[in-house]
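Record format v2
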Amino acid sequence: MIRRLLNKPVLRAVLGLAVVAGLGGALAVVAGLIPIKASSGHWPVTAWFLHFTMRRSIATHSLGIEVPPLDDPGLVLKGAMHYDLGCRACHGSPGMVLPRIAQQMTPHPPALPSRIREMKPEEIFYVVKHGVKFTGMPAWPSRHRDDEVWAVVAFLRKLPDLDAAGYRRLVHGEPAVTAPIETLGGVPPTPQAAAQACARCHGRDDLSRSDAFPKLAGQRHEYLQNSLEAYARGERHSGIMGPIATALDAETIHELSRHYASLSSSSTLATGTENAAAIERGKAIAQHGIPVQRVPSCVDCHGPGAKRGKSAYPALAGQPADYLLLQLELFKKGHRGGSAYAHLMDPVATRLQPEQMRDVTLYFASLRPPTPVPRE
Ligand code: HEC
Ligand code: HEC
Ligand code: HEC
């Protein structure tokens, strides 16, 4: 059959040309003739073709991705804070000229507001989670945290409506309380400089910035230190905290942990009675566990109370309920990771029902935050 086809003169000519073209191409590569310089950009037709390929691939691969609710202001804030740290250097922000160095990339990172308007949320999710090959657009730093990627999507959907002042208010707070986050780039910053950068999300000293972020004030020293080390090693999964912790040296991690452990939190407690019944149910779980489901009591390890466990076990009192609930859900799915003690939570989280998780986290959120323990 093949021999009969090869006997056809036209086919032979086509095949011959293909072989010559292939050999020519290989020769051009080996001789180093293919230009790879970014400075000349792409030919318009190449740029169009690559961009078209990217858009088609995103559209097809994002089919069937389910979009969660994206309007929670805490989610938007979490995404905004990460954007400022992880994306602005390439994509710019409202009121800022596109970054000069990133504009020398081929293809260069586009200004996002007009692009976002044309994209579906699941398409934005797909790009931010997976990045784009051959373009410099990075994948999300943690494979386990789709919830964080959705936070960025929630923010990006607001981006087209933000002007420079609106962006500044969102990212710096009102009034602007904190130092530029650039202190977290490259070289390990001093502990003081780093603490100012942490305040962008976690709040200054004893004050919490928002319920979107866990409180650090009064948390136990060993737990803080173990957590930062686990983020830096990628053993506690977060695309937001991972890169931040990686930029800190051991000394700074130690100092920051000591600093936050010595603060007492002055955040006001959430008041209101609408959750009173849930809090009561949560209190029972926290203090006695749920024997029929073999769930142990929480207070033995987490406090509050005299029995409060090792200093590597976190205090939960006064922590935002949404944050605690998210951590329990991550434990249950096996996506949280953590320090060498994290495995203690596996049996706990897998045995709790969703509404029991809600109740017990509302209970801990309703408690006064811990007062700092004298240096251990
Ligand atoms: C190192 C630079 C760089 C960083 C950091 C970066 N990007 Fe990109 N981004 C790019 C490039 C380059 C492209 C591809 C442009 C193209 O081919 O049209 C891109 C494409 C995108 C697109 C698709 C735009 C389109 O036209 O379809 C989105 C959305 C996006 N980036 C969002 C983000 C977000 C959110 C972050 C932070 C989590 C981020 N990028 C971080 C360089 C970067
Ligand atoms: C861009 C916002 C942002 C900045 C800046 C930031 N954090 Fe975080 N931090 C987060 C988020 C979001 C979480 C929750 C991550 C998770 O789900 O695991 C977190 C979690 C933590 C935790 C774990 C708390 C717990 O109860 O388990 C520690 C410790 C921490 N951060 C320390 C720091 C320190 C120290 C700095 C400054 C060097 C810092 N963070 C800067 C957003 C930020
Ligand atoms: C045997 C001890 C132990 C028991 C019992 C226990 N925990 Fe934990 N829990 C831990 C440890 C240790 C960690 C921190 C893991 C790490 O270092 O990453 C943790 C972490 C957590 C966190 C995340 C805190 C944060 O700041 O990120 C939540 C939420 C939590 N536990 C809830 C509970 C609840 C609710 C119960 C009771 C139903 C419970 N735990 C019972 C040991 C325990």
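Residues 51, 54, 86-87, 89-91, 102, 105, 107, 109-110, 112, 115, 124, 127-128, 132, 135-138, 152, 156 surround heme C (ligand 1) (CB under 6 Å).
The two ends are 84 Å apart (CA to CA).
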